[in-house]
Amino acid sequence: MEAERPDAEFKSALLAEIPQLRFFALSLSGHHDRADDLVQETLIKAWAAQHRFSPGSSLRAWLFTIMRNTFYSDYRKSRREAPDRDGDSAARLFVNPEQNGHLDLDDLKTALAKLPDDQRVALLLVGGSGLSYEEAAQICGCALGTIKSRVNRARRKLMAHLAIDSVAEFGGEFLAIGGSSAPGEAA
């Protein structure tokens, strides 16, 4: 029974992180099926390497690091594959959205895809997943100031891509522009 207890606690902690893992995976991949696969791969890798996790440190940051590394490894592998080079198959699968919200979401996804990888990941970690700048810096393996800079540049580029002229159009609680701060962020 004693040997099972740490595994049970670790399992409970992993299960509690699944919603955030799924959100981050969906942000990275842009596809629900691929996001589910990425979450599953992350959980399997984390379970197999649980002896490497340092108790007391951020489990979410550790899991996001595993997920990000898995995503980038898979991306490098997939660059050599091209099953639909001309896009004919994908073009036949297109369906017009039924609500404006879908169009806005598509615009956001497109704008996010245009951001450099480092800025997109930083923005999604801080703005989308609710991590602190410190946790995001740890996941990305860079300095705190670098993360803050990446998030700020990403927010500005995102606004430019979406043709948003003022913070009020997008929802000021998510953007820190021109010295103002979002709730919970330092100016």
Question: Overview of this structure, please?
Answer:
- By secondary structure, the chain is mainly α.
- It folds into two domains: 1-79, Rna Polymerase Sigma Factor, Chain: A (Orthogonal Bundle); 106-187, Arc Repressor Mutant, subunit A (Orthogonal Bundle).
- The protein has helices spanning 4-29, 32-48, 59-78, 88-92, 100-114, 117-128, 133-140, 144-161, 167-170.
- α1 (4-29) runs antiparallel to α2, α2 (32-48) crosses α3 (59-78) and α3 packs across α7.
- The protein is globular.
Question: What would a concise description of this structure say?
Answer:
This protein is mostly helical and 187 residues long. The chain has helices at residues 4-29, 32-48, 59-78, 88-92, 100-114, 117-128, 133-140, 144-161, 167-170.
